[in-house]
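Hi, here's the filled form for the chain we discussed.

Project: internal
Contact: R.S.
Residues: 258
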Amino acid sequence: MTPTEAINTLYYDDVDILHTHIWRFFTPKKRDRDVTPQRQKQYHTYYAPMNIERWALPLFKSVGLMPKSSKTIARSQIKCASCEICSYHLGLESPDLSPPFKDMYICDVCNCFYHWQCLLKTSCCNATEREAIDANESWACPACIDLNQTEKESRILYSQKREIVEVSWNPTWEPEGLQNTCESFRQSLNKFEEQITAPNLSQPAPDEHLNDLQKKGFSAIQEGNDYQPYNVDLLNKVSFDIQPTNQQSDITATGHCE
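And the returned structure, exactly as it came back:
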């Protein structure tokens, strides 16, 4: 399994993209003399901070995600962690989208999360045990249940002081094709494209300082109550009032083909 495949398997639901900033065309270096690298479109991408196991940091670095900053946090601080077996972050028996999930059990020793259905499928528990587990105030997962007291205390300390790091990332250049496998990148890309094609209504229009007549092509030279047209041939044929015009009231349909 490649580092990218491992990250997609273990952290697919945790990877989130804040936004994309700019884009560029990039041609990778030629690594094979018989293969010509293809120019690709890349986007400057900003990833959201993540809570990950410390051992996973080298995986992210190997695919180009370099930490900007990191700090150790207690696993117990994570309120919506993924199941240790299937890596899915929501409940399997409930449509709820926010914790707590009734079918997600938290180990009192290591603070890891487990779906009940995943525990059954892996034969770590059986159906008859659930009622007793629900009635008990504490529960130890299959990895911790057989630990002695000293081992449990060591495991608790590790989960609180060493195991998890909160990481913020430096921005990276991601290829356009990433949208085919990463939903958050596709959504971010769509927002970016909308922003660069939408008109900037916060900026004043180039003709904002002109009045209605000037916007229609007549000069700013005022003579009495009239405006001088650019086309001098119209000078003696038309006269325009200095008050703004109302196109809806001034133009009336005749009902005839002109």
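Let me know if anything looks off before we file it.
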